[in-house]
Amino acid sequence: MSAFLFSWELLFKNILKLAEISKLIDCRLIGDGFLEISSVASCKNPKAESIVYVSRQKYLTKKIVKKSGAILVGSDIDIVSYNGNFLVSNNHKLSFSKLTKLYKKSNDKNLTKSHYLISSSAKIGENLIFGNGVVIEENVEIGKNVSLGHNVVIMSNSKIGNNVTIDSGTIIGSEGFGNFRDAKNKWLHIDHIGAVHIKDNVSIGSNCTIDRGTIDNTVISSGVIIDNLVHIAHNVFIGSDTAIAAKVGIAGSCIIGKRNLIGGMVGIIDHITTTDDVTISATSTITSDLREPGVYTGIMPTSKHAIWKRVAMWIRKLDKIAKLLNLVKVK
Question: The whole model's pTM is what?
Fold first, then answer.
């Protein structure tokens, strides 16, 4: 029998042999396959029982190699002059991602479950992991391999797919911000009777809010990743494999395309549509549809709206004006 057969006992203790790790994260092993590894460490704090991920040649030093149990590197990094244990990957970012998951699993097992509320009408898939203070309301559907951090609230009728992670403090299915003024100029609220549907392989950070739809559903498509402190309003549709950084606000009824990259603190007004493969620079404000793939930036000082509209009109014409002036100079 092979000495490197998978050890479930060691995995439960958060310890794996280096040869086992190399197979699990698709790396070529150079060094001691019997070495037991219990953690992942940074270049700043290498440990004898840890693996350190080195992404670039300039970060690889003899000091780090000496203090670490092993080093995870890409195949483009020269390790010939170093004497140590190495895991060499043809796709080092993918291998590092797999490595972090190996050592995250045991931490997930430690989430406390002393206080929680799960409705009897909720449908829960296999391998749900959840923390303290979790609330799952009536008629919620949750797929397989879902992880919910502390104080996550999944409100009624929400649907969550497989392999979804939602970090602490996030609320899924909160009431949308739909209001209008009556004849006396007082605010009246429109109750939201839709839901939130989150597809497979989605990751949502801490303290986010995703509002339920007014009538139809708010939808987060498969493969979407969302940072902390993001607000997604009612009836929004987020296309697959889109990434949204922290403090982004997306107003109601927006349609965000596939593979969009939305930088931190971006604000998107209501009823905006973006096409696929759009990148929006951090702190930009999006006030019109983005119909072509590419990078968009919009950062200007605040002013009275009437003034801003006139300024915006001239900004859009600056390129034509500059070309016209150049033609005049040439003549």
Answer: 0.78
